[in-house]
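@channel sequence for tomorrow's demo:
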Amino acid sequence: MTLPADDRLIVAMDVPNAIAGLELAAKLGDTVSFYKIGLGMLTGGGLALANELKAEQGKKIFLDMKLFDIGATVEAAVRGLAQFDLDFLTVHGDPYVVKAAKEGAAGKPLKILAVTILTSLDRADLDGALIREGDLADLVVERAGNAFAAGADGVIASPREAALIRALPEAKGKLIVTPGVRPAGADLGDQKRVETPASALAAGADHLVVGRPIWKAEDPRAAAQAILQEIAAI
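structure tokens (generated this afternoon):
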């Protein structure tokens, strides 16, 4: 049985350029309704691809830029990006960055998502970056709470912290978007804090970001359908 697209599944287009992105979208067809376009594709026509997928194919677009700069620069960058018909945009979760991004997006439907701690990092990585001591999950939850207080529409966090974030009073009505999602048996790649699609949703995530297990698959459409089958009952 072929399942219809589900906005909870966001496919990361971590492919080299817009041409490869359009080829992937053609393979996935109506199985996928939501795409993430990241920094790696920005110079390969990422914004043009976003516009084409949105305007020509009716897809939703998550622009994953992880903006981080002084407040005035972030505000200006978001104001420019908000002129495009995008759905989600990421910034780093520092409160002043979130506040500036919300100012830049004022009056537009663009949702600002705050990055807590990248799902490719563990405590050793944080030590190397001179991030303060403490349990990683505790730091993620604290950053999420601060971002919500600053006005973020949602946060990016690993599925392992989703339940803790969902339990925050400040998380009511907010989005939790989880990368680091891998179907059972899939290669982890550069991710260190991962869960299966079903367990991530059960923990309180609203959207799952899945990249390589789909776009590197021999049959991307079948790989996406397998994930839709897994989350259909959640």
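heads up for whoever presents: The longest helix spans residues 136-149.
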